[in-house]
């Protein structure tokens, strides 16, 4: 077991507790899960409506956009499920309930990540996965076992990158408790950005999403490699394979930021 | 009347307190504005004059939407959750024995909120968009005045919809499901994802006649000058009509709901 096993077990217990609590209002759960599916699906409906007028967006066909959309939404959905409620840290800092986390014999990060665990978010994952499956079936790619493995790694890596962004956003709130919405521009905003081909956006924006907040490694770079297309920044070919390393680096940096955040935390004292 | 003005004022002040949250919201709206603006550029590059807009008008649509998102509470964040919570925990009883009308009280508070968010969250994203892209903003002050009227009516229609959803809590206790469905309809049929003029055929025609169109599509079109002369009056009348119908429906529902209130405790 060890420390890590303890942490995972604690996460499971807290998540299970919230699931039980959710299931007290079963109809509401079904409705909100469907709603979560539908909110996510509306983005794709908008893309479908666009493609009812055009054949290609930024040079990408509908199945290709579906591949981009499916990967980012599935990755984002996974991260959102696992620690999407980390952005409640600010609220807890403000009302003083964060102190409760500090006195319990469970790692704080685990408690924050599992706080109000929202099972309804499987709706978004399901929606992303459906579009992804459709995109995979329709794009002009020969799916060798290697490519399939590459795609799976891409989705997992993407989830890890989004998780790092969520964590960084949570850490940021130790300094600016009211600013939880800033994180939204990188999480939800990032997810929206990655649904579209990079060729659509201005070079500076793509550069920012590659080198500053490296969201491009969630799906742009690997998907471009899968589709056999050049990326607009003309990075070397191996860049498409850097996703896992980038994810680990980001998780490490976010972890450090989180630690610094906790260390700088001063209770409201009331 | 003085009472409601005071309530509106306190609504304004309440939201003005959270400066950092406002700045964070402005930042997020601006980021989304940029993302959407580039996708719209790509779309209008393929199909110039799609939905009757030229490129500058389409970009104006993006940025005015981002500027109005908080004001007409298209993504929630208004009073609806608070109303639901008060019904759920019984605090609504306190609201009911105040010597004020429940619906007007909440409307006044929401108008105050909207007033702040129009200034606090609307101006900067629109400016950022206008500085970076070529927008089709009118020079005619009358058009801006009409736009402000349309925004006011949009806020009232938005309030009326959210009020109805909030009242559902009297019957359902946990209103999260209904709130979700309402948010979906709001997102899609207000035009915040894609202008309703781009929606095809009959579907588009129906979407443009629904109350959600009054919350975003109509104000933007008024600003863009798509309703010339008396057309603008027609657009405002469309909004006012929905506002009246939905507010009346809210009154009816409220009368029904308050008859079934049972307050527990001693």
Please tell me the total number of domains of chain B.
1
Overall average residue pLDDT of chain A: 92
Distance between the termini of chain B: 34 Å
Provide the helix percentage of chain B. Answer: over 70%
Tally of separate helices of chain B: 12
Q: What distance lies between the first and last C-alpha atoms of chain A, to the nearest angstrom?
A: 38 Å
- Cα-atom Rg of chain B, whole angstroms? 19 Å
**Overall pLDDT level of chain B:** 91
**How much β-strand is present in the residues of chain B?**
under 5%
User: Biggest sheet of chain A, in brief?
Assistant: none
Can you give the helix content of chain A as a percent range? over 70%
Q: What's the oligomerization state?
A: heterodimer
Secondary-structure-based class of chain A equals mainly alpha
Number of helical runs of chain A?
12
The SSE order of chain B reads HHHHHHHHHHHH
Total strands of chain B? 0
Our count of domains of chain A comes out at 1
Poorly predicted ranges of chain A (pLDDT <50, ≥5 residues)? none
Order of helices and strands of chain A: HHHHHHHHHHHH
Low-confidence stretches of chain B: none
Structure overview:
The complex is a heterodimer of chains A (270) and B (266). Chain A is an all-alpha fold and 270 residues long. Chain A has one domain. Chain A has helices at 2-22, 26-51, 62-83, 89-95, 98-103, 108-114, 122-138, 145-172, 180-194, 203-212, 220-227, 243-264. Chain A is globular. The relative contact order of chain A is 0.14. By secondary structure, chain B is an all-alpha fold. Helices cover 73% and strands 0% of the residues of chain B. In chain B, helix 3 packs across helix 6 (102-132) and helix 6 crosses helix 7 (141-167). The chains are: A mainly alpha (270), B mainly alpha (266). At the A-B interface, helix 2 and helix 9 of A face helix 2 and helix 9 of B. Chain B: The chain crosses the membrane at residues 20-44, 56-79, 118-138, 144-173, 185-210, 230-250. Chain B: It holds the Pfam family ABC2_membrane_6. Chain B: Keywords: Membrane, Transmembrane, Transmembrane helix. Chain B: This is ABC transporter permease.
